[in-house]
């Protein structure tokens, strides 16, 4: 990786984005700072959301710490797929696609338990210990694992394993992508809280009335690509579901600035209509 090059481009992009988002941040703060404290303001706005028939659970007001991180696409999966056993792997683009010669049965009620054990076997999946189960992105027929990063995980189709199950609860195939050399680009910084992320999404008019907030997660999503290198930022991923619907819509908030992130790439390939 040309780290100097990625660092320069990253810093230029970072400064431009921060200048733009600072204006949005200041506007939002001015709207809220008239006669009430931040905490009181948050409580008022959450109450307004509930009055608009937006269903939300208990929200955390805790600020976390996270990083700007980078990772590199490489041919490491292609180079090592020869050690995989009892399957037929092929490398397509930057993904490893593999069909099992004999389907593997997993626990119907807890597929994670079965797959977690399989991931310890390097002849079944490469670098399996570097992935973590994502309940929220998984369905009964598609089990998703995200690649770990800095105490969290990456929400991107470029750092993911997707296991396909048949109607008999058996793994029949999987697709894997992997980022090599994940590292932080600067020291950790404080993120906004879950409560603040949801409030800003509401203030951006991104949560319609009569909607349920199905789940929220703090993870990493892609900011930019430079050749084979990727830069990721901490992001609040918020799943909303309209009333009387099973369809989930995924929204994203920059966890450093509070700015809304429009999906310009396939960072979140899975958009499940139902959850396990």
TrEMBL record:
InterPro entries: YycI-like (IPR018604)
Residue ranges constituting the Regulatory protein YycH-like domain according to the UniProt record: 40-256
Transmembrane parts of this sequence: 6-25
Record keywords, A-Z: Membrane, Transmembrane, Transmembrane helix
Pfam families documented for this protein: YycI
Keyword Transmembrane helix: yes
One term under GO cellular component: membrane
Superkingdom: Bacteria
Protein name: YycH protein
Organism ancestry: Bacteria, Bacillati, Bacillota, Bacilli, Lactobacillales
